[in-house]
Amino acid sequence: MRRFRNRSLAALTALGALALSGCGAEAHTPGDRAAPGPSGRTVTAHQLMRLTTVHEETGMTLLEGPVFGADGRLIVVDVTAPPGKPKVMSVDVRGKKARTLFTDDRGAYTSAQFSPYDGRLYLSDFANGEIVSLAPGGGDRRTFFTGEVGGARMQPDDIAFDRDGNLYVSDSLGLTTGEARGRVVRVDRDGGAATVLADGLAATNGISFDVGYRGLWISELTENRISYLPVDGRPGAAGRHTAVRVDGGVAQTDSIAVDADGNLYQGLHGRPAMAVYDRYGERLATVEAPARAGGLESATNVAITPGGTKAYMTVSGPAGGYLYAFEAFAEGIRQSNGG
Fold first, then answer.
1. CA distance 146 to 130
2. Which of 141, 213, 254, 287 has its CA 20 to 30 A from that of 336?
3. What is each CA distance from 321 to 9, 106, 227, 325, in whole angstroms?
4. Is 270 helix (H, G, I), strand (E, B) or coil?
5. Tell me: the pLDDT tens digits for 251-260?
6. pLDDT digits over 70-109, tens only?
7. How open is the CA angle 148-257-108, to the nearest 5 degrees?
8. What is the pTM of this model?
9. What share of the chain is helix, strand, coil (3-state, %, to 5)?
10. CA 2 to CA 106: how far, in whole Å?
């Protein structure tokens, strides 16, 4: 069985090859601050439900991309689901029930988010270097963007939308070779022009706008850092800079989300936990699954209920793919849903 710790460097590579070959939460007041210190407090998430078990065909399961739809259901993707198994699921978090929204025989979908422009559900297909979209009900699959950008085909990991519906992609180019060739790519909302906004990144993974849409928070998996990239076009705006260096030990920086107070929720691959920072880089808390929860090795992403503080974290490992819940530090907004 493949080890989850090697998800990005091995499992996604293997999954991409497979696809291409055709085949109790700690009580606190939302918005309060952590105790002083470099690591902040510990918030224990509680298990809500198991969504998947390890797939015999791929040797693993890996949940990602949680995002709430207009109907209140939570959309979750399983990156390593084989053909015929649910690759996109719709979850009733109150009733603790899930149903298949979409599957196919080729894609490895690593994130999901609804567009503010056309209301469709967009997915990044890491295996095929494409961005696809679905109708909210899971049908009408369309290829939104495919092909080369700046002379190279993308390895899209996560996505984020600006207010106008233009799409921003964390391109993990170079991930499989260990080269710092990662990029941030902007695709016009009609799927036409694509522009490289930043390059030379170390396995670009998470991407999310800040609260004011002035810049992008970007996590770089193989350097365990969060960078900030201004994108609002202000005269004299500086380029990207390292904003946070994540002390992850054996864990690496995965997806990233932002709440209404501007706090960053940084997923960790290699540990079933998330690191929470304020916008100035202060470590507020570590949200983690209970120590007794064995067989879990990563917490990739989180969705916070729009206008509420209930957060749902995707956690995976040899024990399966789960949703864990906790109280967020502030209310959920678009940037804490699928970014």
1. 5
2. 141
3. 20, 21, 29, 14
4. coil
5. 999 999 999 9
6. 999 999 999 999 999 999 999 999 999 999 999 999 999 9
7. 40
8. 0.88
9. 5, 45, 50
10. 20
**pLDDT value at position 338?**
64
Q: Which two tokens stand for residue 32?
A: 């309060």
Structure tokens of 148?
């080369």
Neighbours of 164 (CB within 10 A): 10
Closest CA to 191 of 264, 128, 276, 131: 131
| 142 phi/psi in degrees, rounded to 5 | -135, 145
Contact yes or no for 179/196 (Cβ under 8 A): no
Domains of the chain: 4-23+26-336 (2.120.10.30)
Name 145's bridge partners: 131
Torsion, Cα of 337, 69, 119, 159 (10° steps): 30
Structure tokens at 141: 């699959």
Which two structure tokens, joined as six digits, stand for 325? 């819940």
